[in-house]
Design brief:
Order of helices and strands: EEEHEEHEHHHEHEHEEH
Distance between the termini: 37 Å
Mean pLDDT: 91
Structural class: alpha/beta
Helix content: 25-40%
Number of helices: 8
Largest sheet: 6 strands, mixed
Number of strands: 10
Strand content: 15-25%
Strand order of the largest sheet: 6-7-8-3-9-10
Low-confidence stretches: 242-248
């Protein structure tokens, strides 16, 4: 579980996050949604520790990220998996080497154990016999699956996904959504997904936080979102659906 309490963040005196409090539950797909410029990416970066918030606390279970020193954050980092927008695979490394990369940084496994873990992760994302291929040889969907395999290599307790469906066709996007949800349930991970994809929201949004102009304006499940009574959320939801239809 991750608990965000009264988090604020400004850049050059301009407030971007304003006193945000939210709870992201273990074993659930937690989504942060909002328009471009709403502050959702800044919030995700603060939660991960890529940005320092100006005030507030960020609790990983009972540990406050904002009060940790470098060595404490390194220990926490071992429990975190990251799925970056665009996959962010290393072009010069093979698929297997990409997955082993975080194991080299944070694990004490020997070479054979690392290979076994890489094979397990590849099998879990339905990819086999691609160990020695390079990212340039993979489709967009395959790259995303390799990135998920890398994200779970260290058996994380916390998984962060930044626009995981960016650049994917609708069918592949659904596959990736379902894979993230399955992994979240199977390994009981606290998963936080930053997205503006309403298909993802409706498919896997068990806990959804809507950010509007740097503030938390609504929180609930995908079952409640169409009946929220929040005018700004309704505008976001229905304009997103319209844009999706126009792109078809």
């Amino acid at each position: 579980m991750i608990q965000v309490s009264n988090v604020s963040k400004s850049f050059d005196g301009v407030p971007v996050l304003k006193d945000i409090s939210a709870r992201f539950e273990q074993g659930k797909t937690n989504l942060i949604i909002g328009q471009s410029g709403s502050g959702k990416t800044v919030l995700l970066k603060c939660i991960v520790g890529m940005l320092e918030c100006d005030s507030g606390s960020i609790l990983y279970d009972d540990l406050d990220l904002t009060r940790m020193n470098f060595s404490q954050r390194r220990v926490l980092r071992q429990k975190i998996g990251m799925l970056f927008q665009g996959s962010a695979l290393f072009d010069s490394l093979s698929v297997e080497e990409n997955i082993i990369f975080p194991l080299n940084m944070f694990s004490t496994m020997n070479k054979e154990e690392k290979r076994e873990r890489a094979n397990f992760c590849l099998k879990r994302v339905d990819l086999q016999n691609v160990n020695h291929m390079f990212p340039s040889e993979l489709s967009g969907g395959m790259k995303k699956r390799v990135a998920i395999a890398r994200a779970i290599a260290n058996k994380p307790s916390f998984l962060f996904c930044d626009e995981p469906n960016s650049g994917l066709d609708p069918i592949t996007a659904i596959v990736i959504d379902n894979l993230i949800k399955e992994i979240t349930k199977e390994f009981n991970i606290t998963t936080i997904i930053n997205t503006h994809d309403m298909n993802s929201v409706m498919e896997i949004g068990e806990n959804v936080a809507f950010i509007y102009k740097g503030q938390l304006w609504w929180e609930g499940s995908n079952q409640d979102i169409l009946h929220s009574g929040n005018a700004y959320l309704d505008q976001f939801v229905y304009s997103s659906k319209l844009m999706h239809k126009l792109k078809k």
